[in-house]
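FAQ

Q: What does a record look like?
A: Structure on top, sequence underneath. For example:
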């Protein structure tokens, strides 16, 4: 086997290099689209009794790359993540080949020190002077841990007794917040009906006065408000809730204040745009997903807690001497503050990328994203048949095609978007503002240039003209 290593990794290098080169071309497709039924016929997905050679395996893996969405492509504006960060990719490779787990210093000494340093650095940026944190498997799970931490603080008996003797707890998020808060309330026995959606304004920001009003109503019913979730960049409108104002309400009513920065957390790296996070140091917890705006490979998510021992106190007593031992490494065993046992080394890819770009490099990358979003907004305003459907808040632009003589704009805009998607030339998503379909452009790839935006509009109007001619 050993004598084949060089040939195997030479072939891997060739495939990856070709993939990256092809993705960089302005003429490259975002996807070679086929229906699920047709694609399954084209691929040999079944697993047989007998194994195959590496040569045949590489053919299958090349097909995987060929027919997958090229999220690296500069015409991929569909999700809140995009691009390829080669420094982060290298960290991913090295963590995979070392193949260790993050529960003890004993089996992950270097990875443990790297994760602890990153948590220290990120807490410092957020202003959490006595903070702690842990890498988790995505923003949804980070939201779960935030609600979990808040519940255990207000009702610590719940750890051992469950919720049968608990007061009627209520949690508050904006009507633009991520759906995972409802899932968290469900899983923790609070109940999704106890998650109260607070009205947002026309820009998508939570209205503090409405929050205070809902808390008073809840208290009037004999309920116990315990958790407020603010959002730092909502999924559709990219809105940042007013953290500073919300923090005053949280303090007044003794509620845990959580900031869900799953999308916009990395904006805090820019001195120019850190104003979106005014009051963040008053929050009890903060999610930051480097796999989005820092372009680190999926999944790289962190939850920061503004109190040192909360994560450790969340857990019931760990009587597992087959993993955790009493020795000088004890305070470095990150498994003692994580709800996971086996846990992937996600810290290395973030560390590799951040080490490569540095603080200043990442600040420039974040600010380039805002420049590109502003340019996209400008281009929408230049076309008479396009209109903004909402005021741009940060890195998403919501717009639609409106030629002025169409009765069903929703159907028309959905058709344009779907035809564009299947063309493979550009990929952009959509959502609803009220009852109206809106096309959502999001820029999260820091390598995108203004010329890529010009190409997008060329592709977009090619589809529009095709539909007009039908």
């Amino acid at each position: 086997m050993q004598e084949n290593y060089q040939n195997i990794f030479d072939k891997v290098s060739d495939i990856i290099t070709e993939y990256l080169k092809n993705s960089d071309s302005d003429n490259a497709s975002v996807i070679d689209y086929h229906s699920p039924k047709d694609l399954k016929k084209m691929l040999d997905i079944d697993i047989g009794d007998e194994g195959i050679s590496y040569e045949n395996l590489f053919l299958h893996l090349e097909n995987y790359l060929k027919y997958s969405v090229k999220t690296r492509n500069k015409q991929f504006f569909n999700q809140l993540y995009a691009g390829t960060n080669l420094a982060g990719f290298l960290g991913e490779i090295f963590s995979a080949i070392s193949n260790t787990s993050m529960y003890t210093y004993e089996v992950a000494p270097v990875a443990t020190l790297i994760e602890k340093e990153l948590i220290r650095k990120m807490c410092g940026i957020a202003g959490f002077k006595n903070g702690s944190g842990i890498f988790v498997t995505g923003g949804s799970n980070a939201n779960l841990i935030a609600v979990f931490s808040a519940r255990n603080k207000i009702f610590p008996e719940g750890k051992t007794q469950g919720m049968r003797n608990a007061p009627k707890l209520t949690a508050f998020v904006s009507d633009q917040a991520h759906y995972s808060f409802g899932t968290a309330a469900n899983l923790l026995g609070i109940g999704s009906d106890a998650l109260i959606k607070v009205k947002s304004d026309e820009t998508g920001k939570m209205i503090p006065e409405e929050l205070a009003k809902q808390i008073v109503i809840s208290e009037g019913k004999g309920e116990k408000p315990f958790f407020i979730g603010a959002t730092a960049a909502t999924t559709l409108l990219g809105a940042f809730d007013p953290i500073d104002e919300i923090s005053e309400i949280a303090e007044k009513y003794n509620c845990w204040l959580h900031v869900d920065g799953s999308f916009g957390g990395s904006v805090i790296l820019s001195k120019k745009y850190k104003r979106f996070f005014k009051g963040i140091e008053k929050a009890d917890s903060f999610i930051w997903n480097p796999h989005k705006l820092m372009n680190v490979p999926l999944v790289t998510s962190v939850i920061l807690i503004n109190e040192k021992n909360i994560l450790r106190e969340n857990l019931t007593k760990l009587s597992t001497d087959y993993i955790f031992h009493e020795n000088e490494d004890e305070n470095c065993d990150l498994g003692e503050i994580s709800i996971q046992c086996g846990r992937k080394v996600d810290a290395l890819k973030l560390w590799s990328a951040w080490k490569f770009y540095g603080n200043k490099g990442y600040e420039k990358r974040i600010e380039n994203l805002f420049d590109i979003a502003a340019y996209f907004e400008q281009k929408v305003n230049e076309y008479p048949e396009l209109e903004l459907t909402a005021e741009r808040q940060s890195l998403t632009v919501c717009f639609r095609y409106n030629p002025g003589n169409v009765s069903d704009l929703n159907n028309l805009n959905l058709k344009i978007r779907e035809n564009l998607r299947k063309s493979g030339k550009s990929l952009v998503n959509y959502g609803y503002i009220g009852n109206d379909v809106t096309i959502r452009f999001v820029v999260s790839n820091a390598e995108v240039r203004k010329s890529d935006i010009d190409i997008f509009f060329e592709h977009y109007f090619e589809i529009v003209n095709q539909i007009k001619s039908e």
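Q: Is there anything notable about this one?
A: Residues 347-382 form the longest helix (36 residues).
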